[in-house]
Amino acid sequence: MSAAEVSNDPLAAKGETAPEEGDGNDPHFEPVHKLDTQVEVKTHEEDEEVTFKLRAKLFRFDKDAAEWKERGTGDVRFLAHKTTGKVPDIAEGEVTSELLAIRFANSENANNFKKSFEEAQEKNSSAKGGAIKEQDAPPATGGTTETTETEKKEEEKKEIAESTETKTEEKKE
After folding, report:
1. CA separation for the pair 109, 161 (Å, rounded)
2. For residues 69 and 72, what is the distance between their CA atoms, to the nearest angstrom?
3. What are the CA-CA distances from residue 153 to residues 73, 96, 97, 105 (Å)?
4. Which of 2-6, 91-95, 109-113 has the highest mean pLDDT?
5. Which tens digits make up the pLDDT trace of 69-90?
6. Cα separation of 154 and 138, whole Å?
């Protein structure tokens, strides 16, 4: 046997050949059903533009436990409708009255939120048609209307922004 015939390959010693590259463990599978058309996904944000966006934590006050519970971390956004200019207050699911708090990274972000929130209020009041009238708003659960829920949320946001400002001022002192 010459040196050229001697191989360190274990498959060659048994008389087997190594598989070619590409013939091995290919994890590619053909789909069972092929989709003919592409499904268009709508986010319902196509007609809106982002006027404010900041990362923050959202907290919910639990009345039973008398404590704040973290809901999650994400982007707080104000979306203004391109044609009407209104900035709606939207919540998914069933309408419930909850006390919410937003925690920003610093007081500067909280002040920016407050400023943008007040600008959005002005835009909504000066936009075509003004604010939603109570008679036009669909009734929500508990005999309230969306307008009162929106007003409550706006008041809560103002209180939160003000409390954030006072807390940061106390820390500085």
Report:
1. 10
2. 9
3. 19, 11, 9, 21
4. 109-113
5. 999 999 999 999 888 888 888 7
6. 19
Match 């590259």 to its residue by tokens. Answer: 21
Three-state secondary structure call for residue 128:
coil
- Cβ proximity of 57 and 102 under 8 Å: yes
Answer whether 71's CB lies under 8 Å from 58's CB. Answer: yes
pTM: 0.51
Q: Going from the N-terminus, what domains does the chain have, and what CATH number goes with each?
A: 48-128+143-172 (2.30.29.30)
Backbone angle region of 44, left / alpha / beta, with phi > 0 → left and psi within -120 to 50 → alpha: left
- Summarised one tens digit per residue, pLDDT across range 107-149 is 999 999 999 999 999 988 887 665 444 444 444 444 444 445 5
DSSP per-residue letters across 53-90: EEEEEEEEEETTTTEEEEEEEEEEEEEEETTT------
Number of C-beta neighbours around residue 164 at 10 A: 21
